[in-house]
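Worked problem 6 (solution included).
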Amino acid sequence: MTSVQVDDKHHDAGNEAVQDAEASSEGYQRGLGSRQIQMIAIGGAIGTGLFLGAGKGISKAGPSLILAYAIAGVVIFFIMRALGELLMYRPVSGSFSEYAREFIGPFAGFVTGWTYWLFWVITGMTEVTAAAVYMTFWWDIPQWLSALVFTVILFGANLISVKLFGELEFWFSTVKVTAIIGMILICAGILTIGFSDVGDTASVTHLWDLGGFFAGENGIGSTLMTLQMVMFAFLAVELVGVTAGEAKDAKTVLPKAINTVPWRIAVFYVGALIMILSVIPWTSFKAGESPFVHAFDEMGLGIGAAIVNFVVLTAALSSCNSGMYSTGRMLRDLALNGQGPRLFTKLSKKGLPVVGTTFSAAMMLVGVWINYQWPGEAFNYVVSFATISGMWAWIVILISQIRYRLKSDRGELPKSTFRAPGGIWASIFSLAFIALVIVTMGMDKDNRVALYGAPVWGAILAVAYFVLKARKTEGAAAVQRG
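Solution. The predicted structure is:
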């Protein structure tokens, strides 16, 4: 559906009927129920960034990493509420590029759709490879073989039905949530009862008595430098927006899912870190090591390594599963708007974007081969570029919400039934925060390369867009002459 059609339709009186018509015209089946949407929303913010990446943040910033997660969590809540306002205005699959197209312009929609597709393809490449590495913890299996098997299984699940995708995400998220809650309860038991090898030394005073709360090498500066890692850990939280076109009773389910953001960040990130750093001194953590595994080892619970390995395995598979789901829908949205090959518009009899999903899965398999041929820093640089791609979706959501709110307040568009608290000011604050994160990336040599790659990708998309536009113009002129 084009932005012109959107503008025309939203001047009609029956806005709810229009939204239902839009959903059905996309051709998707509403196969995702409340239980699945809620778990997709909860699990979207929990991944390897927490289970593995937090170790580096703790070693850099000490206990102040907790504050970094808390502040970033507020920004994530603003972003999700901005997305929620747009979703209740018009719940469609492939929402980010649709809103960019309507409120920023056709070129922005083109860039957003292809950039978000790239983000998930690269993420899928790395996560399926990571899952294969995790398998070697138990069995001596060739890494390429595990990666291939996982990709085929997840690809098959995404082609069977959207409900099966939702079920897989439900159980993947359940494993992650259970692991974190279990860790919190064990830590609480150690602090109150004093069992395990660290029972005599565990204390909440660890949060401030080992060099202070801002105990990093550069104090608050060290905390600021962890913001990029913290925000990266939250990537994929926006995935719930892509499910809008296939959610049963979207107007009820999606707001409930989005409103879980504050408590899940408070529990799974802030709460978990408070408990772990109260039981184990922050000085014993180091980069490249899961804080969960290290904590279990320090407690004398050696089985923790196997448990956490299983959890990070499910986190990687969950991310790859989400990538296959979202990329197929993004490609179809682009194709429907004339910004991608028409082949991607095809749906299976079950209403699934089979061609787009197949193409994306094939690209992920190429990533496995690349990682096999050229391991090391080169592939890590590609991963850092994926994070920039992911944050672009957040920027688009915020700008679109600002423009939508201004139009709806002037009466040019109907008001959303789920308005974001703080209005445009919360979105402006969030944009400023993301800008700060990008600045800190430029100050970090390990992530700076991503900032070099972003303009190159933008230039490629600009050339592709204007070539596509020129061909359309020539085709229209030929038709008129005929």
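Discussion: Confidence is low (pLDDT under 50) at residues 1-25, 476-480.
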